[in-house]
Design a protein that fits this description.
By secondary structure, the protein is an alpha+beta fold. The chain contains two helices and six strands. It has a four-stranded antiparallel β-sheet with strand order 2-3-1-4, with helices on one face.
């Protein structure tokens, strides 16, 4: 199961921000990602905004939420890649390790 402290990140065209924020279901918290270097919002390489979404309890319905969000006006992409990731690199005992699918 996915960790609820890790966000679902969506990329959105800036002009669609206000409309999208009203469409996110109440059981989620959505925050526009802030830039670390300046007092403004973070932007994707295409100049779009990044929104981090967190569940109240768990990610049991992340697939349905992701599908819903991707259908909204102005949403470019999300960080949910079901069945696309074949390996991850993580850290254990201060060493990078790769975990492969299967």
């Amino acid at each position: 199961m996915l960790n609820p402290t890790v966000s679902l990140c969506i990329e959105i065209i800036p002009n669609c921000l206000n409309n999208l924020m009203t469409k996110i279901p109440q059981e989620y918290t959505a925050k526009v990602r802030l830039d670390q270097s300046v007092a403004s919002f973070a932007h994707s390489p295409l100049g779009n905004l990044l929104i981090d979404i967190y569940p109240s309890n768990s990610w049991l319905d992340i697939e349905q939420l992701n599908d819903f969000l991707l259908k909204q006006n102005g949403v470019v992409s999300s960080s949910y890649f079901k069945n696309l990731v074949t390996s991850i690199i993580t850290e254990s005992n201060n060493k990078a390790i790769e975990i492969k699918k299967g």
